[in-house]
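Researcher: I'm preparing a figure for a lab meeting and need a structural model of a single chain. I don't have an experimental structure, so a prediction will have to do for now. The sequence is pasted below. Please return the structure as tokens so I can convert it later.
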Amino acid sequence: MSQKRIAVFGASGATGREVVRHGLRAGLEIVSIDRAQPDEADRIDGVTYRQGDVLEGDFADALEGCDAVVSTLGVAFSPKNALSPPPLYTQGTANILDAMERARVDRIAVISASFVIDQPNLPKWFKLTVVPALHNILEQMKEMEALLEERPGLRWTAVRPGWLIDKPASGDLLVEDEFLPEHAFRCRMGDLGAFLIECVAHDRYVGAKPAVGAPEEEKFESPLALGEEFAGL
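Model: Understood. Here is the structure written out token by token.
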């Protein structure tokens, strides 16, 4: 694999940091693009930092010299966002695609969610409680996937993880086309970051919607675990 330069949107977030970590480990050049730049003390050696707000302005210059884009933009779950999520997946992604076109970059991998379609392998309690609460956010994700499919010449991947868990990569990630593998309800952010890098570094899953996840211990998959995680938001 020849060295590639990857632009990462949302690199300061939990999954974004994992993408940066795994990208550097794979020998890639990483360009972090965020609305606000980190303090010098918080910057990572080997990462180029550029400023860009996906909801404002023209940031095509921030993509100069990049071979691919990874978007880890996401809407945190909260009552306010559940009712009226900011348009990061829709307008934000459209602006990224416009900037990519101007910068002549044609490869992108984004984070969607497995829950944008009915998942037979989801626990029933999760389907009846959490999925309906995420309706407005999931609708934006569906629109984002449609935006990718509608762009001529774009080489895209929409990764559909299970319910995210803030843990390092286990290396046990399971992958299926669109639908979560059996018993793969959760997805570690570390594994998701590594998978996104794999997609753009090796041009895997182009034009696809891979669903990814892995089995976890019961204490991480129960309704109690969900309640504790939401309580900590």
